[in-house]
Specification:
The complex is a heterodimer. By secondary structure, chain A is mainly α. Chain A has helices at 6-16, 21-35, 52-57, 59-77, 82-85, 87-95, 102-119, 125-143. Classes of the chains: A mainly alpha, B mainly alpha. Chain A: It comes from Neomonachus schauinslandi (Hawaiian monk seal).
Chain lengths: 147, 141
């Protein structure tokens, strides 16, 4: 089980309080689909993904991004039990969605880059370290029930 | 490998880094060592807690090499051949570490450019730096 120190938790929660989950979620998923186009394979029914601007403006991408990041927010409230928080979602991503867990790591990294762009200097190396640890923990938790 | 548009994005971002290779490089290394402490295993000569001077010196060297890559996007293999030899024969950095460096590079760019760090820039730089990493590890075996 991943353990987060008090400082790491503060680094995460203090930034999270200032994040617009709807906007950031859409941006994170959009950037994932643009920067790593092969990830579009999971979203055939999302409509127009033909260009960067089409992807970033796509309402289904924004909606799904918001859903994903909202779930992230639940993780942040339970950083000491990521495996528990994501148990059901892990089963879903394996059994129904068939998503390679590598994609969770890619999305986590994109989210960190977005936070860096939003927070600038405030996103210090120490803050980045806490967030990278969190996104890695979430990715591992989401892969935990794979079989 | 890089489209015309992607080359423009790479060059545009480089214009902002050129002249500041030392400070960008130092921040890059500091983030790398803070976020991924195992990467310090390749920098024994800098000690467990490298000081600012060491980070600036080595960071400058690394970013100057990136600058060479930017000038030779059409022919990375030739331009980076000596560095590829160095990595294959002397440094032998496990290839799994390059994505960690690339992640930190993107974070440095994003935190400095903020709202100006467009998705097109992120995509172009990720592709470009990944290409550089491929060339640097190509002679490993």
């Amino acid at each position: 089980m991943v353990h987060f120190s008090a400082e790491e938790k503060t680094a995460v929660t203090s930034l999270w309080g200032k994040v617009n989950v709807e906007e950031a979620g859409g941006e994170a998923l959009g950037r994932l689909l643009v920067v790593y186009p092969w990830t579009q394979r999971f979203f055939d029914n999302f409509g127009n993904l033909s260009s960067a601007s089409a992807i970033m403006g796509n309402p289904k991408v924004k909606a799904h991004g918001k859903k994903v990041l909202t779930s992230f927010g639940d993780a942040i409230k339970n950083m000491d039990n990521l495996k528990g928080v994501f148990a059901k979602l892990s089963e879903l991503h394996c059994d129904k969605l068939h998503v390679d867990p590598e994609n969770f790591r890619l999305l986590g990294n994109v989210l960190v880059i977005i936070l860096a762009s939003h927070f600038g200097k405030e996103f210090t190396p120490g803050v980045q370290a806490a967030w990278q640890k969190l996104v890695a923990g979430v990715a591992t938790a989401l892969a935990h029930k794979y079989h | 490998m890089l489209s015309t548009q992607e080359r423009i994005q790479v060059a545009q971002v480089w214009d902002l880094i050129a002249g500041h290779e030392a400070s960008f490089g130092a921040e890059l290394l500091l983030r790398l060592f803070t976020v991924y402490p195992s990467t310090k295993s390749y920098f024994k000569h800098l000690g467990f807690c490298p000081d600012e001077t060491q980070l600036l010196t080595h960071g400058q060297r690394m970013l100057e090499a990136v600058g060479v890559a930017v000038q030779h996007m059409d022919n990375l293999r030739a331009a980076l051949s000596p560095l590829a030899d160095l990595h294959a024969q002397v440094l032998r950095v496990d290839p799994s570490n390059f994505p960690l460096l690339i992640q930190c590079f993107q974070v440095v760019l994003a935190s400095h450019l903020q709202g100006e760090f467009t998705v097109e820039m992120q995509a172009a730089w990720d592709k470009f730096l990944t290409g550089v990493a491929v060339v640097l590890t190509e002679k490993y075996r």
